[in-house]
Amino acid sequence: MARKQSDYLAALLAEDEETQAPAAPAVIDNTPAARPSGLAEAPAPAPRAQPDPAPASSPPAQQPRASAPGLGPLRGTTLLNRESALARVASGEVRQVTQLLLDPARVRVWAGNARSYAHLSEESCRELIDSIIAEGGQKVPAVVRRLEGDPAYDYEVIAGTRRHWSIAWLRANSYPQFQFLAQVAQLDDEAAFRLADLENRARKDVSDLERARNYALALKDHYGNHLTRMAERLKLSKGWLSKMLRVATIPDAVVAAFASPADVQLKPGYALAQALDDRNAQAAILKEAKQLAREQDAARSTGRPTVPAADVLKRLLAAPTAGNSTAGPLFVWEAPASGRRAVSVLSAGRQGVTLKLHNGTGATTEDLIEGVRAALEALEAQGKGMQR
């Protein structure tokens, strides 16, 4: 066992000894006969004889040569506890954890973390900042790993980005005594990603868009673009992960339409990503997104409320059909018996064709089937058919 580990745990257990009693040091028998147990146990002061827990073959030399009167059992128990703790470290059951107090300026944030460091602010970290001040420092350590060959930084943060930002802010704002508490770990990039992801899942302030883009990068960097393998390693539903990766494809120009990237959540974001797959719809959505971005900037500059996320999403999704309200349907088929409109094509794109079958036209089922066939043939002639 390394001497540092032994000294570290011995010091921890020595604190227990000091709080129990100022016992005189017990003498440990280091003869070969005493080494199976490794430690001496003082005899109990009670007059009634106690059964000897040692095997019958153990020689009398296992007893200490001297002990403090009345404190032998206490001292012996403490030494046995120490031996037990050291044995657990040696066996691998217990691992020594290294925690350091670091200057945050010498620590960078790992690029593989989902949280956007640039979007952190005093407002978003206010609760954590107040907690650190009230407690006289950071109590929960971050997880970092050591860097080699970087003259500007010694460590990088794997988990604990907000803690790093908050300590750095406090040191720059009247609290220079605070230091960044961190636990050092040896992790490869894939293990670091999984650790950071587990922490971020419990954080409500990590947006779905941030996580989605983080997953998209990790899929390529750590899992060779194998979705199933990534889902298994992260213990996530393959379907859910697939939707997150679709959200990651939303371009920055569309994200700028929202007041904050945090407004892009999974369910509405997935619908928006699907709409952007249609090339015809994409141009209209991008045009509306630019208009919304201008409105959001104007609202911020004048202190007015920004456009809510629900309204932004509604306008973006409606953009592809906004100019078609007066143009009418793409194709109309009339019932032979009445001459009334029986089948209409409302839209056609990569996601599919939207048909409307009208009531009260006198058309039979066979008539409607013929009308749908005629509509599909007309779309095919226009280059908008189902075979694209």
From TrEMBL:
Gene3D superfamilies: 1.10.10.2830. SUPFAM superfamilies: KorB DNA-binding domain-like (SSF109709), ParB/Sulfiredoxin (SSF110849). Belongs to the ParB family. Residues 44-62 have a biased composition (Pro residues). This is ParB/RepB/Spo0J family partition protein. Residues 63-75 have a biased composition (Low complexity). Residues 13-75 are annotated as: Disordered. It comes from Novosphingobium pokkalii. Residues 100-201 form the ParB-like N-terminal domain. CDD domains: RepB_like_N (cd16405). PANTHER family: CHROMOSOME-PARTITIONING PROTEIN PARB-RELATED. It comes from the Bacteria. It holds the Pfam family SoPB_HTH.
